[in-house]
Description:
Strand content: 25-35%
Largest sheet: 6 strands, mixed
Number of helices: 6
Helix content: 10-25%
Shape: elongated
Amino acid sequence: MGRARIIFALVGLASVLGLVVLWLQPRVEKALAPEPHTAHVAIEVDGSDVAVVGRVETLAGTGFRLHAVLEATARNGEAIFYSEAQALEIGGDRVPSEQIRRWNRPQEAKVLWFTVEATSPFAKLDSGQGLERVRYEEFFHPDWSTLWQIDGNLDPRHAEILAGSEEATAHFGTQRFRTWVEIFEPVNPLVPAQRFRSLGAEDLRDRVADFPTVTATLPGSAAAVSAVFGLVGVELPGDASPELRSEVADQAARRLLFTRVSVLREALRLAGAELDELPWRNIELVGRMSWGVEVRQGDLLRVGARLVMLHEDRDGDGQLGGADSCLDFDEGAAVRRLDEVFPGEGEIEWASLQT
């Protein structure tokens, strides 16, 4: 065989080997790549340097972002976390930065976002009924894009039904989140080859302590009441069993639901006060008491058994009046005008919870 033929043969062999390598490379890379297995939601509050997988508490009005996290295991057993977060905390432990990676695989990844909420903001239990009446569902938010990182908000899904109401504009309360991370192969870009889901509605009761949750509260004595916005309010029947009352109290303590008694008790506890020992005073909603001087957010108003907490000088005149707003937790949590709760004229009892 002549030298030219040998060179030609070697070049041809190299070309074939190169094509084989190019053909095998994606398969080899895929076989060697970390294997995804679990999705998480991480929450990064403005001013924080870390996105937390779990529960986060902050002040009302503070912005936050949601990060999708896809946990994978490398061939050496090391945990890898695909995310756009700069820093992660899971289970109270900071993830080493070298274990956090942006998604850099040839497969396309799309992220779907959900909130996990009670099916109704209020549940009145009849005699013989238990908490099976209180159910949780996942609500898909297609308007939240399919990105790995999005700006979060607390709006409950049912707020769209209440469009134009005060409740729909509350920027405080509790909201829970879920994500799906879907992986698409280039050969079939329409149907996901893999789908990974973070904790969902079926996990909420058992995993509430580490469920991705944001609770944003008003300051001071209004914290306890503002925290229950977004949760389901429950009214027990008069003949509720001790077992049911105990179960409700436990779920209220874990912030799964609330009752008028539980939220008022927590507000009084935070203020170090007793309801019957408060210095109640009779007033009228006729503009004779000044906001920030005599009355403040977090004060209590009542007529008989009807009790609310002051929220804002909604009309901006500086004086307490019927157009101002309150936090009402009578049948679910809502922001309402005072003259909607206490219509007509007459005296109302007022007490301060300021400490």
